[in-house]
Design brief:
- The chain is α/β, with parallel strands linked by helices.
- It has two domains: 111 residues, Roll (Urease, subunit C, domain 1), CATH 2.30.40.10; 304 residues, TIM Barrel, CATH 3.20.20.
- Helix content is 34%, strand content 21%.
- It has twelve helices and 16 strands.
- Strands 3-2-1-4-12-13-14 form a seven-stranded mixed β-sheet, with no helix packed on it. Strands 5-6-7-8-9-10-11 form a seven-stranded parallel β-sheet, with helices on both faces.
- It is globular and about 65 Å long.
- The two termini are 40 Å apart.
- The mean pLDDT is 96.
- The chain binds fe (ii) ion.
């Protein structure tokens, strides 16, 4: 007797329909001929069943704080940082925990079950760290939450930040963070990258730096990060986040840099929702999009995974824990509209994000964990196009969340009674 049997699912690689049998939190069997009694049966009916979504870049200490203490008027990254500086002294552990848990509820409903969150460690007391360590414990049964010690105001620029960062790591924060482009000088930025990578090497920790989140073509800290990653052999443990300045580099420099990033083995995490709104603010016209070079990095063999970055905070007034919205914006902002690229965008917010976070490969397979999402879509491209409804979210074989299918009831003479967006689909891939 299985705990759960999902019937007629289509998998993200196009296989299907298959049945997925789940027992004891794992996938007991998966295939066309899998049958048997089960405590619960879910009819996928030819719809997509995917590994859960992964967000490899978020700021959970700031989430849902929009409007506190005021709105960001200019919409720039720098005003966002200043605004956060005003909010920080007023934070309490309880308030941060409450907002973070509310966000995690939303994440579960959206099938988002792995999140890497940066947490500001620039200034004492480490309210955010204390709060998110508690949240990490509370959500552990249903969300893999990793925390990054992030010196938002600069490792060397903010007095005491380096000591606070080490203290946060001692308290149990998982990943070493940084923000080299926000240090006072290019030299301080490069020095911070080296310092942080050496700490990570010493402690056996991953690294995830906000790197060159700027329109400045001379912000080139990702070069130092690639070199340090190679020198210290940190390989797959390192993430360069944002890297928007790469959009402004000249092509010759980028052609030298991208192979160095590939050689280092590090991951790159662009955040299209945020950076399409933050970057290019000082441009008149033409105005830069300010996303990193996604297609060129992919072509060089670099793992690129989209992150969400923010939801309703000093930097971004929208956001809804929806990684399909993130992938959708990535498709537009890069831009990349080939069938291959749009399908990749889906995988980047599942498999790509898991690789960037150093998690086990979540591909649905016999013997693997029974963590999955049933979507109201027939394939990954359709899921991105529709930002498909998460019909069921499953973790360890248990259904954590259900959402009713999105179907409109029509009253139009001579037309159908209802419209299901998933039935208005383009032809299958050729
Ligand atoms: Fe960020």
């Amino acid at each position: 007797m299985f705990d759960l049997l999902i019937k007629e699912a289509v998998l993200p690689d196009g296989r299907g329909p298959v049945n997925i049998a789940i027992k004891g939190g794992s996938i007991a069997a998966i295939g066309q001929n899998v049958q048997g009694e089960a405590v619960e049966v879910i009819a996928a009916s030819g719809q997509l069943v995917s590994p859960p979504f992964v967000d490899p870049h978020f700021h959970m200490d700031a989430t849902l704080s929009l409007g506190l203490p005021r709105m960001n008027q200019s919409g720039t990254l720098l005003e966002g940082i200043a605004l956060w500086g005003e909010l920080k002294p007023t934070l309490t552990v309880d308030a941060v925990v409450e907002r973070a848990l509310r966000y995690c509820d939303l994440a579960v409903a959206q099938g988002l079950l792995s999140i890497r969150s940066h947490v500001d460690v620039s200034t004492a007391p480490l309210t955010g760290v204390e709060a998110l360590l508690e949240v990490r414990k509370k959500v552990a049964p249903y969300i893999d939450l990793q925390l990054v010690a992030f010196p938002q105001d600069g490792l060397f620029r903010a007095k005491g930040a380096s000591e606070n960062l080490l203290r946060a790591l001692d308290m149990g924060v998982d990943v070493v963070g940084g923000i080299p482009h926000f240090e006072r000088t290019m030299e301080d930025g490069a020095r911070s990258v080296k310092w942080l990578c050496e700490i990570a090497a010493d402690r056996g920790l991953p690294v995830d730096l906000h790197c060159d989140e700027s329109d400045d073509p001379l912000s080139r800290h990702v070069e130092t990060l690639a070199a340090e990653t190679t020198r210290l052999g940190l390989g797959g443990r390192v993430v360069a986040s944002h890297v928007t300045a790469m959009h402004s580099y000249d092509n010759y420099y980028a052609s030298k840099l991208i192979p160095l990033i590939a050689e280092s083995g590090m991951h790159v995490v662009p955040n299209p929702l945020i950076n399409i709104t933050l970057q290019g603010r000082s441009d008149t016209y033409p105005r830069r999009r300010g996303l990193t070079r996604v297609q060129e990095l992919r072509a060089a063999g670099v793992n690129v995974a989209f992150g969400q970055d923010c939801a309703m905070d000093p930097w971004y007034p929208l956001g809804s824990a929806d990684m399909l919205e993130v992938a959708h914006m990535g498709v537009h902002a890069v831009p990349m509209t080939s069938r291959e690229a749009m399908s990749w965008a889906f995988h980047s917010v599942t498999l790509g994000g898991a690789a960037a976070m150093g998690l086990p490969d979540p591909t649905l397979r016999e013997g693997g964990s029974a963590n999955m999402v049933l979507l109201q879509a027939r394939d990954p491209i359709e899921a991105v196009r529709l930002k498909a409804t998460r019909l069921a979210v499953i973790r360890g074989g248990k259904v954590l969340s259900r959402t009713a299918p999105r179907i409109a009831q029509l009253s139009l003479e001579g037309r159908p009674d209802s419209v299901n967006p998933a039935e208005y689909a383009p032809p299958k891939d050729t």
